Structure formats: C-alpha cells, structure tokens
Amino acid sequence: GDSLITVQLTEEDKVEDDVVFYLVFTGSTVQHCTSTRKINPGSLETISPGHDCCETVKVALCASREGHPVLVVAEESFQFVQDEAYDAAQFLATCAGNQQALNFTRFLDRSRPPAADVDFLDEKVALAFRHLKLPAEWNVLGADQSLTENIPRETLMHFAVRLGLLRLTWFLLQQPGGRGALSIHNNEGATPVSLALERGYQKLHQLLTEEEAREPDSWSTLSHTVHSGDYCVKHHRGLDVYLLTAEA
C-alpha cells in the first residue's frame, strides 16, 4: 500500500468539476474504496490501499454526481505483490515464541539501523502486519501457552521495543498475549518496559505503562488511520484523499 496511482482519463471522460471520481478495489476477502484528486482535466491521483494478501484484484473507476446514478467509467486488473515489509511481517508472525529465531533477530540491534530506516521499517512492517491473515489461535508469546511468566525468554515485544518500533509495539499490544509479554524477562533480566526506559524511548515507555495510552500518531506525517471493527479509514494529508477498507 501507500504507492501513488495516476489515472489518465480519455477525452469523453473529461467532465465538469462537480463530478467526483473514485476507485473501488475488489479482492477475494477485502474491498477498498479510494477518493481521488484532480491534477488537471485529464488526470487523477490517489494512493494504493494496503491489501490482506498477494493477489490480482479488480479495480473500477467510478464517477459520482449529485442527483445522478453512479457510473462505472472503466475496469482494470491490479496486482498486489510481495515486498520486503510483507516478508518481514510474515517472518515475525511465524517466529513468535521461537527462541532461536527471536535471538537471531537481535543482530539488528547490534547493526543499529539509521533512524530514518527504523521509521520506515516501523510504518511498513506495522502496516503489513495489520493485513496478515493471522491464525485464530495466534499469540504474541507463541503457541506454547503452558510456559509461565517466570521463565526468561525473548518475545516479539522485546524485539519491537529494542528497535524502538512504536507502531509495531502498539499493534502487538492489541493482540492476544501482548499485555502479558510486558512482564516477561529475557535472559538478561530485561522486560520490554525496562528496555524502553533503558534506551530512552520516552514515547514507547509511556505507551507501555499508561493505562489510557492511545494509538500513536502515524509515523508518517502524510497519513492518519482510524480503525473501527471491520472497517478502516485512512486520510492521506498530502493528496487529501481518503481510503475506506472493509471486509467484502
């Protein structure tokens, strides 16, 4: 998601300013509707939605005018492909509770990615994680729920906090086992909460310790997302376009 899409209109589709164009993406389980911004009489811009799987979907360009029925102007196919953020989210989801895999991820801490790379990683992986089809029994702490909190071990929450991934941490907090992970010590005796404090991540520490902590603002200054049940509305401030996602 979040890629720029340009739509070229044909001569017969260039109409008055009171006509509103939008795109409807129809996938196997999710549907997206995006508003558009007119660049000139013959061109529109919008933002591609984040999708729940890699597949080819149908996209329809629709035109709406007050007092008139909605018109389907054109239809085309659109392909969602697998990228690095999707790979990273899938890897992290499958290694929940896997100590060998979680210990392997600690090499990222030693390499210390630049702040800009961390910001990019946080936003893209958190977005990809939101759209993964996680199993109903998925848990931040892994599949083995017989382990007690007294057993030292790495968790996905340690990973997210260690790198300062604010939005990914927020996502994990909302999942089964997310809150329970906050009190688990790793082999060095650190909890996710103590890691955030030790590294000076003030916003992250606040997110983990305040009962009324709210979802952090979008890591990007360009967009803001609001989730409500099976629906998600995203406003891209740069283009002033809106995107509605719903289960089909």
UniProtKB/TrEMBL annotation:
<dbReference type="GO" id="GO:0005078">
    <property type="term" value="F:MAP-kinase scaffold activity"/>
</dbReference>
<dbReference type="GO" id="GO:0071875">
    <property type="term" value="P:adrenergic receptor signaling pathway"/>
</dbReference>
<dbReference type="GO" id="GO:0035023">
    <property type="term" value="P:regulation of Rho protein signal transduction"/>
</dbReference>
<dbReference type="InterPro" id="IPR036770">
    <property type="entry name" value="Ankyrin_rpt-contain_sf"/>
</dbReference>
<dbReference type="GO" id="GO:0016020">
    <property type="term" value="C:membrane"/>
</dbReference>
<dbReference type="InterPro" id="IPR051632">
    <property type="entry name" value="Rho_GEF"/>
</dbReference>
<dbReference type="GO" id="GO:0015629">
    <property type="term" value="C:actin cytoskeleton"/>
</dbReference>
<protein>
    <submittedName>
        <fullName>AKP13 protein</fullName>
    </submittedName>
</protein>
<dbReference type="GO" id="GO:0043123">
    <property type="term" value="P:positive regulation of canonical NF-kappaB signal transduction"/>
</dbReference>
